[in-house]
Design brief:
Structural class: mainly beta
Distance between the termini: 33 Å
Largest sheet: 8 strands, antiparallel, barrel
Radius of gyration: 17 Å
Mean pLDDT: 86
Strand order of the largest sheet: 1-2-3-4-5-6-7-8
Strand content: over 45%
Shape: elongated
């Protein structure tokens, strides 16, 4: 219950301001290492993100993300792991919008749903959720468009590890 309230608070805080926002589409390469196996898989996803700034310098903001799986990878014994979907809510801090290259950091909560398809026709699902930490960089293309490159440790709990490497195209509004 507390995590749901935190996500709702993260989502609503930046949307109440008048500082402007951004939206983007990222290609994500994940690495998922479940605790019940020694193997790992590298499925892919498309990530949609929407954010708003708390201040006019665009140094503090909040952002919501939704990811949908677009590719699977073999985990072990011909079992294919894929991301079904994932959600996240984050606080974002970065250098001012006057710089052409802006490093940033993220902290928030993520929830990742996966499915493992076995070669005998069966399947199993596993959900991963935890505090997420990320580092990235935005590079300005035009006044309203920028490219982002980001590394995020999505989950690191109870032996489960999920990391994302994302490359995206974003727009300011």
């Amino acid at each position: 219950m507390m995590k749901r309230m935190l996500i709702a608070g993260l989502a609503s805080l930046p949307l109440l301001t008048n500082a402007g926002g951004f939206a983007g589409l990222d290609y994500v390469s994940s690495k998922i290492e479940p605790d019940n196996t020694t193997a790992s898989a590298k499925p892919q996803a498309l990530q949609f993100k929407f954010g708003s700034w708390i201040n006019k310098d665009e140094t503090l903001g909040g952002e919501l993300r939704l990811g949908l799986g677009v590719g699977d990878d073999e985990l072990t014994n011909n079992a294919d792991l894929e991301i079904d979907r994932y959600y996240g809510a984050f606080f974002r801090g970065q250098f001012p919008n006057t710089l052409p290259v802006r490093p940033y950091g993220l902290i928030g909560l993520s929830y990742v749903e996966t499915t493992v398809e076995f070669d005998n026709g069966g399947s199993d699902g596993e959900n991963f959720k935890d505090l997420s930490l990320g580092l990235g960089v935005d590079v300005t293309i035009t006044h309203n468009m920028f490219v982002s490159l980001e590394y995020m440790r999505v989950v690191d709990r109870s032996g489960d590890e999920v990391t994302n490497l994302a490359l995206g195209l974003n727009g300011r509004f």
